[in-house]
Amino acid sequence: MTTSISLSPRIRKSPFFDATMRAGVQAFSVYNKTYLPIGYTSPEEEFWKLVNDVTLWDVTCQRVTEISGPDGFKFMDMLTPRDMTKCRVGQCKYVILTDQYGGILNDPVLMRLDENTFWLSAADGDILMWCKALAVNSGLDVIVREPEVATLQLQGPKSFPLALELFGPQVEDIKYYEFIETEIAGSPVILARTGWSAERGYEIYVRDLSRGEAVWDTVMEVGKAHGIVPAVPSRIRRIEAGILDYSVDMDTNTNPFEVGLDRMVALDTGRDFIGKAALEKVKKDGIKRKLVGVQIEGEKLPYNENDWPVFDDGTRIGEVTSVVYTPRMKINIGYAMVPIAYSELGTTFTVETKSGPLQATVVERPFVDPNKSLSKA
Predict the structure, then answer these.
(1) 78 near 28, Cβ under 8 Å?
(2) Do 142 and 72 meet the contact criterion of CB atoms below 8 Å apart?
(3) Is the pLDDT of residue 322 over 70?
């Protein structure tokens, strides 16, 4: 008997949904109550196209929460441990949102559209409802809503010449983690130099949903000369790059210091934010565990569908949260949450995999291009 998951009106389709079907999408997942394409060919084929050419992803599942109103800045500054005074209009920031216990609620990409208007392009999690609930009793004059917008990612080293052809010479002036407002195929868009690949890339926020397929078709048609293919977020490349996946490598049960996001937490600015007291205590007391990069021995391992237990001398000490075989490095790499005593480089322990127990060694992460020279080029 074949088991399947049926489509449902309760799950949102992107304006690119039919275009992805025409392009030969093989499967979907559900992310932020939205269908997310998860494969056209094989992960390895899509990985090589991403690192050598250019790929187009439907990531409308990165649902956007908009914060605006006279007190929009004050509210945004309260939401995140990151210091918002260092984010100017026209700039993007990778941020985290924390709860009152210091746990990580989400790690969106933020864009500052004007002095008091911000967009949060969210990972999997109901940030819209969190922000709406906080606004009710905040005493601030703020509006929280979901704008009509759908997102494509254009990722890979050839994304720059393609973007130049699509949007013109203004593309040359967009610095890493900046954005401009422009248009394509009859739709106004925000074009941000961001992405989930650590390759040169852009995110295209389409603001006229009725033009979704026209935008997709235009990008694909112009992209033919650059070797473009439709693809999906690459698990291989994001792990190589040290990128974390929310709800996989971190969640409300982890704090920023445990997962290496210390740089996101500004405790010495005199400002207050949700979770500050809890994070000050963590900083003072020190963390008891840490997310580390690991290399796992053996032949090519499958993706882990759940955490894999980590043992030392028969005693469970932690878990592997993500693992992948990278065809570029020809090894199995991933992340493991382990006690601090096991976090030093070169430390070994045993991981219970689908292939049986295998030795893992703590190694540096990111595994590839630690200075982000590819994405910043």
Answers:
(1) no
(2) yes
(3) yes
